[in-house]
TrEMBL record:
Residues annotated as binding substrate: 141
InterPro entries referenced in this protein's UniProt entry, alphabetically: 6-hairpin_glycosidase_sf (IPR008928), 6hp_glycosidase-like_sf (IPR012341), Carb-bd-like_fold (IPR013784), CBM20 (IPR002044), GH15-like (IPR011613), Glucoamylase (IPR000165), Glucoamylase_active_site (IPR046966), Glucoamylase_SBD (IPR008291)
Single biological process term from Gene Ontology: polysaccharide catabolic process
Any one GO cellular component localisation term in the record: fungal-type vacuole
All copies of domain CBM20, residue ranges: 475-579
The protein, known as: Glucoamylase
Stretch forming the signal peptide: 1-17
Organism: Crucibulum laeve
Catalytic residues (positions): 197 (proton acceptor), 200 (proton acceptor)
Length: 579
């Protein structure tokens, strides 16, 4: 009798998987995921097991594994998804608003707890997890983890921006800003130190962490200027620029993917990078690769390398063609629970592509570059590099296939979702049965945000548009000095002065990339053109000023090249005449 009942359950799960369309799955799974997510939040969640108000438990599982704690990262990602739902008017219930306010109150308390990572002002914000009764967890752990403060700031700033737009700036200034500022101060101060990655295993530098830190400081600058907290702007901007610079260094140009950790001795192929892409999504930035937008050539190339890493290591993927969706996990070398697929990783693989499709549709074109060609070749063996307008058949072929490919990842999760719709942390690589922590909270927002992305929901942007990677990356190049270049020159209308020279900071003699100087008001027959640049200390370089009219190079200074050697430190001011 008992076993017959089990057979029926298994049969139902199989039916759901094999005959259900993706819409059927989404329609049934979305409300289940939402309910299960809320069940894991204190104080009223039915599975929150006594968690204090506003705390997210990682899972109700108390053994094999024991996840009945609250993690700063997971909680921030959960609440970011809920704050998006609230601020995008998808769920305007007063209980959701109360829950968000509870989250704010709980985080305000947690920030102040002295813990093994430090006090509130000496690094304690890098503590990864706490007890669910709002006390410090003191056992051994992979600490610190430096993504939590940035992710929490991102969630709270998203809420803050909505409150400001809804005439509640006083709550932002009085209640949210003090919490946000602590997180951003922490991020600005500690971003350049190593810490444990999001999987809590490798202590080095991690792409996901760097991306979250960068985003948080950019959003912090914008919020600070909105509410008049101008004293932080300079420092946050400086460190955001350094972070954007450092973010570029993870790219592996030979093998076309992001090496997710600088340490750990692994391939670096990791869901870390796909999660970084979806959590960096800003539709206004188009397909910008510097911020690893989902449709950027680098993020697409990385997607292929990441997914391919799982095609042959899970037997449930055996029968799947090379260009069809498969179950994916954290990273191919994973040994936790013997290395299995994760629901949230597989959902992220879908979400990145849905976000990409949203942007291509909005901009009415997509670009195939030499970097992303291998990704696109999965969907059309004859595709070539180029830009394809929405009216072209290539655009239709590619976007239709990519949509089906993205849906394929959701259908993999659907196939291995049990009949009650619950999502654990992992599912088994041989037969797909759920594994490890039951009701992993993060599995639910990961599912819901992938569904929302499929509908074309676009979360609020964060200022990724038009960010320039500083030509000098302090984090990579060591000590810098500031050079103030001032040139006395007479110019005609539409004419501008630029500077170009023998080092990275001076665009390596490339006039197209030259920095343009700013002119003072015209004096008698000239103006003074100025630019301040960071140049490596104790470095000899050559340079010239050039003229451009309407952006086109019209004149170089006469020979010889100018040359200068920077001092070991300080600021140097040069005032020179056009030659
Ligand atoms: C939790 O339940 C209490 C008692 O019913 C209620 O006052 C409170 O608003 C609830 N909190 C949330 C976040 O729904
Ligand atoms: C909080 O929870 C921890 C872990 O369960 C427990 O050891 C501790 O005694 C609790 N503290 C309080 C004040 O309830
Ligand atoms: C501002 O938002 C807070 C947090 O939800 C709320 O408690 C407060 O009543 C709001 N104030 C106004 C004026 O709407
Ligand atoms: C997949 O392949 C492995 C070895 O290559 C094999 O042991 C396993 O049975 C296969 N699984 C399925 C589901 O085909
Ligand atoms: C970051 O750390 C590296 C290595 O410790 C150091 O060389 C570099 O100067 C630091 N960069 C910044 C901007 O602090
Ligand atoms: C401005 O005019 C003076 C006097 O004619 C001349 O000596 C000087 O070179 C001119 N300056 C520039 C920048 O053309
Ligand atoms: C530069 O652009 C302006 C405005 O578009 C135009 O009037 C002018 O003729 C252009 N000058 C040259 C040299 O192309
Ligand atoms: C100035 O530098 C450029 C780039 O290195 C070089 O090609 C050129 O010959 C130099 N000019 C002189 C006069 O040395």
């Amino acid at each position: 009798m008992h076993s017959a009942w089990l057979v029926v359950l298994t049969f139902c799960a199989t039916v759901l998987a094999q005959s259900g369309s993706i819409e059927d799955y989404i329609n049934s799974e979305a409300p289940i995921s939402k309910a299960n997510l809320l069940a894991n939040i204190g104080p009223n969640g039915s599975r929150s097991s006594g968690a204090k108000a506003g705390l997210v438990i990682a899972s109700p599982s108390t053994s094999d594994p024991d996840y009945l704690f609250t993690w700063t990262r997971d909680s921030a990602l959960v609440f970011k998804s809920l704050i998006d739902q609230y601020t995008l008017s998808e769920d305007t219930s007063s209980s959701l608003r109360s829950s968000i306010d509870d989250y704010v109150a709980a985080q305000t308390v947690l920030q102040q707890l002295t813990n093994p990572s430090g006090t509130v002002s000496t690094g304690g914000l890098g503590e990864p997890k706490f007890n669910i009764n709002l006390t410090t967890f003191t056992d051994g752990w992979g600490r610190p983890q430096r993504d939590g403060p940035g992710l929490r700031a991102i969630a709270l700033i998203t809420y803050a921006n909505w409150l400001i737009d809804n005439s509640n700036a006083s709550y932002v200034t009085n209640t949210l800003w003090p919490v946000i500022k602590l997180d951003l101060d922490y991020t600005a101060k500690y971003w350049n130190q190593s810490g444990f990655d999001l999987w809590e295993e490798v202590s080095s530098r991690s792409f996901f962490t760097t991306a979250a830190q960068h985003r948080s400081l950019r959003q912090g600058v914008t919020l600070a200027s909105k509410i008049g907290q101008t004293s932080v702007i300079s420092e946050y901007t400086t460190q955001a620029n350094n972070l954007l610079c450092f973010l570029q260094s993870y790219w592996n140009p030979t093998d076309n993917y992001v090496t997710s950790n600088t340490g750990g001795g692994r391939s670096g192929k990791d869901a870390n990078s796909v999660l970084a892409s979806i959590h960096s999504f800003d539709a206004s930035a188009g397909c910008d690769a510097r911020t690893f937008q989902p449709c950027s050539d680098k993020a697409l190339a990385n997607h292929k390398v990441y997914v391919d890493a799982f095609r042959t290591i899970y037997s449930i993927n055996n029968a799947t063609a090379d260009n069809k969706a498969v179950a994916t996990g954290r990273y191919p070398e994973d040994v936790y629970y013997d290395g299995q697929p994760w629901y949230l990783a597989t959902a992220a693989a879908a979400e990145q592509l849905y976000n990409a499709l949203t942007v291509w549709t909005a901009q009415e074109s997509l670009e195939v570059t030499s970097t992303s060609l291998a990704f696109f070749c999965q969907f059309s063996s004859s595709v070539q590099t180029g830009t394809y307008a929405a009216s072209s058949s290539t655009f239709t072929t590619l976007t239709t296939a990519i949509k089906a490919y993205a849906d394929g990842f959701i259908l993999v999760n659907a196939k291995y979702t049990p009949a009650d719709g619950s999502l654990a942390e992992q599912f088994h690589k041989d037969d797909g049965h759920p594994l490890s922590a039951k009701h992993l909270t993060w599995s639910y927002p990961a599912t819901l945000t992938a569904f929302a992305a499929r509908k074309g929901v676009v979360p609020a942007g964060w200022g990724a548009k038009d960010l320039a990677v500083p030509s000098v990356c302090e984090s990579n190049l060591g000590p810098q000095v500031t050079m103030s270049f001032n040139l006395i020159a007479s110019t005609v209308k539409n004419e501008k002065i630029s500077i170009v020279g023998s080092i990275d900071a001076l665009s390596n003699w490339s006039p197209d990339d030259a920095h343009t100087l700013k002119s003072s008001p015209y004096l008698l027959n000239y103006s003074i053109w100025n630019i301040n640049l960071k140049i490596p200390a104790s470095t000899r370089f050559e340079y010239k000023f050039i003229r451009k009219v309407n952006g086109t190079l019209t004149a170089w200074e006469s020979d010889p090249n100018r040359s200068y050697e920077t001092p070991a430190k300080g600021i140097k001011v040069l005032v020179q005449n056009w030659r």
